[in-house]
Design a protein that fits this description.
2 copies of one chain form a homodimer. By secondary structure, the first copy, chain A, is an alpha/beta fold. Chain A is 37% helix and 21% strand. The structure holds 3-isopropylmalic acid (IPM) (2 copies). Chains A, B: It comes from Chlorella sorokiniana.
Chain lengths: 357, 357
């Protein structure tokens, strides 16, 4: 038995309410396995802007860096949408990722049999889909310099730089190959090397790293084709590795295969020994915040990813995942995944799946 | 009656065979309306590399610039895949677009009632979808400078620049607003302004141009969300305007709503009075080239777009589109869109729809 220090960032919108459910589930699952969790809450995003004027205050950075893992809900909302970019909630998220060097964003898109009809894609197309998208998270065009605005021939020009160095590609490629080895041993690297130099470098390095993983079947796909194949034949994919912006696009697209963003967790891992960030893929849904309508399952599954990848507590992870499955099997559904014949969770009896981990 | 000078670029793979069908249809449709087409063929892509060592030879550029419109089939193939980027077929395509300043790429994604079951998305989701994607085609990260490779701290670095200037955004925005005025009067501008400066500039300019189009309902969407909404609720979209790489990704994704790339035409238009480029969205499909299996309809529909947008011959365009509809209504299908109960076109009787424009 050990004590695990978790920094909890409830963020904005539905964040606080789904955090409550996830922590209840995590505490219970830990207790059953003799593991203790200590939670330190800190503000980020809009909540932090309101409290301190900064979407990622130094005090939050400090407790994140000191934690064993960071559990984040979601950030943002209409309220802060008109602020200049540098002061917006999103900037807090980007700075959090960067400050922890959380370079490998793992986004599973798994179609649960209970929800195979929830997708806009045909059941036979999505049934059995199990994709892991590995997105580079602290480089590429999100952070590339130079960036900004300039004046040229009397008009404004906006520019950003998409840049990758060999070591950045190599470390994310290794994460992806390692993940593929533990799964179906197929890896698809996605880039635009027929047009972009940065993608040619990406492809070269991935091919080099592949020599250390002879068992993994490596393929290469252009981003436009990948965006297409993900809908045409999603079962083709096992692990996908790609850069920051392409991963942003593909993982959101892939989320639709599952029918609900409310089900999808993610892990953003750093170097060994450093804390990772675990967060749902969905946003802060300000329109339904505070109404007890939000689906907490992505947050519970994010806590499970934290236990599995960040804390080496696979048994606690198993319990959390089993709790989610049990709630679904019992027919409980929030509005986003409601189907005929299913039931709304009863708030009075305690929100599932926290009741039974 | 007039004579129209068309530069025809059959390109590679299935290009020559679908070109033959499209020209036969175009000539017949023109004749019925008293319009004459004169075709000048020129090599591009792999065919041009084989003939001259250059994927876009000066002689091809010359006849393209001199034409009333350029009708292109498709380029590329395994054969040229290992050449360095600057000598590959794709580079010929990019240079063609740039040399004609074909800055506005119009890609309709229309779900034909006859093919509503061909998509991997549910019929009720795609039925009635009619989206026009307006993609900026000669700027952005495809052409931005600086670009290339450098050595830094003993390792290779690859980089590209995503850049837009006000005038570039303004002209593509105007094309999109004009198109929206002729359609459903809704325009969605797609960018990533919560992260990228180039996207903030994009958004600012689109908002400014919108003042000249008070009747058009303008919305803004981040590219990740757009990639998601395109599958979640495609009927939301009327006209979409976006930059070069985002448009590349979104238009390929949107093509899957229709069930077959073999059905999708595109137009790349330049300033008034300058020739545009009309081409199918699909690739050169080297695996089925020369077997009379390719679907020629996207190419026929590209010729129709040429007549409508480039030559101001709406009646010829109507005839070509009616011919496609007639062939589908008669139950003819190539392999890519084959459905139970439909028939293969009989080569002996002449490939439809060229028989009956
Ligand atoms: C909020 C935004 C900055 C962020 C991103 O683009 O990375 C989000 O879309 C995500 O994918 O986590
Ligand atoms: C072949 C390639 C360079 C091209 C592009 O990326 O523009 C293609 O994908 C397209 O969309 O026409």
């Amino acid at each position: 038995a050990a004590t695990h220090n978790i920094t909890v960032l409830p963020g904005d919108g539905i964040g606080p309410e789904i955090t409550k459910v996830a922590l209840k589930a995590l505490t219970a699952a830990g207790k059953a396995e003799g593991e203790d969790f200590v939670y330190t809450e800190a503000p980020i995003g809009g909540a932090a802007i309101d409290a301190t004027g900064d979407p990622y205050p130094a005090s939050t950075e400090e407790v994140c860096k000191a934690a064993d893992a960071v559990l984040l809900a979601c950030i943002g909302g209409y309220k802060w949408d008109s602020l200049p970019n540098a002061q917006r909630p999103e900037k807090g998220l980007l700075r959090l990722r960067s400050s922890l060097n959380a370079f490998a964003n793992l986004r599973p898109a798994v179609v649960l049999p209970q929800l195979a009809d929830a997708s806009t894609l045909k059941r036979e197309v999505v049934e059995g889909v199990d994709i892991l998208i590995v997105r580079e998270l602290v480089g590429g065009i999100y952070f590339g310099e130079p960036r900004g605005f300039k004046e040229e021939n009397g008009e404004r020009v906006g520019y950003n730089t998409m840049v990758y160095r060999e070591s950045e590609v190599e470390r994310i490629a290794r994460v992806a190959f390692d993940a593929a080895m533990k799964r179906g041993k197929r890896l698809c690297s996605v880039e635009k090397s027929n047009v972009l130099e940065v993608s040619q470098l990406w492809k070269d390095v991935v091919i080099r790293v592949a020599q250390d993983y002879p068992e993994v079947e490596l393929s290469h796909m252009y981003i436009d084709n990948a965006a297409m194949q993900l809908i045409r034949n999603p079962k083709y994919f096992d692990v996908v590795v790609t850069g920051n912006i392409f991963g942003d696009i593909l993982s959101d697209e892939a989320s639709m295969l599952t029918g609900s963003l409310g089900m999808l967790p993610s892990a953003s891992i750093s170097e060994p020994g450093k804390p990772g960030i675990y967060e749902p893929v969905h946003g802060s849904a300000p329109d339904i915040a505070g109404q007890d309508k939000a689906n907490p399952l992505a947050m519970v599954l994010s806590a499970a990813m934290m236990c599995r990848y960040g804390l080496n507590l696979p048994k606690v992870a198993d319990r959390l995942e089993a709790a989610v499955t049990a709630a679904l099997d019992a027919g409980y559904r929030t509005g986003d995944i409601m189907q005929p014949g299913c039931k709304q969770p009863r708030p009075s009896a305690g929100r599932h799946p926290s009741g039974s981990p």
